[in-house]
Request: fold
Amino acid sequence: MGAEESWFFVPNARLTWTWKRTQNWKAMIVTSSRFQPTVPTARLSSFCLLLAFSFAALGPHIVPPVMAGPASKKLKPRDPYALIFGTVWGPDDRTVYGVKVEIRRVPDKKPKWEITSNHAGEFAQRVPAGKADYVVTADLKGVKTSDGQPLHLAQEVPIHVEYDERVDIGLHLTR
Reply:
């Protein structure tokens, strides 16, 4: 059952061809007209259904309120936005790479956005469109000049945004 004979030509040592018989075993698939699930499969499927229904029923009560509440308003790609674009300038009037720039709204104490200046000393951040005031600062912990002197920000830069616009600023660092 499942064995199949095949005949083919094989060259022999005297350069003549002879017939050789081989047996190839092939697996046969047996199908039946009715499906009989085994006991572990039935138990597993009923357990999965029970688990799904219990999470559906108890899910809102188990999820912490922080996760269940509405997410903070995050900008989607199609939402209108204002752009804060800036350049970080060093004491020698050259751009500075790798400075951590922090942007916060005026009433807030902690920064809402933290970005780093790129190799050209530039940074850009999308903020929600609408009337708002922002303050841009630089976090200069560990930033020093080539001769080892620490750098300081000359002054924080206040920004006022009306709607969907681009605001260009410059952060000037001093010794």
Observations:
- The chain has two helices and ten strands.
- The helical segments are 39-62, 65-68.
- The two ends are 91 Å apart (CA to CA).
